[in-house]
Input
Amino acid sequence: MGTISLEGLEFFAYHGFYDEEQKVGNKYSLDITIHTDFDTAAKSDRLRGTVNYEELYRIAVEVMSERSRLLEHIAWRLIERVREQYPHVEKVHVAVSKFNPPIGGVCHRSRITLEG
Output
């Protein structure tokens, strides 16, 4: 068993609870960690025995292009799509960050994490 991670994926997207956030957009960051058995890939040096990073990134791009009100919903959709593409993975851990969230004060970013 091992982990595969893509860290610090950055997107400009149109998510947010407030309508204004969905109009002006914001910068977001994703960290994705997959827990899976990649012994076959490690021994054979073949991509088919593991999770393809390029495919994982494509899934992230698709999810980030679909507007959501909540960061939790973004993470949930990402986990669902990864599980559809790679049903053999044990766990998917996703962290979603929004830079400069509109909280009425100084905040570099808000962040949620979800595991499924």
Notes: Helices lie at 19-24, 39-44, 53-65, 71-85. The domain at 2-115 is CATH 3.30.1130.10 (GTP Cyclohydrolase I, domain 2). Residues 15 and 67 are 5 Å apart (CA to CA). The radius of gyration is 15 Å.
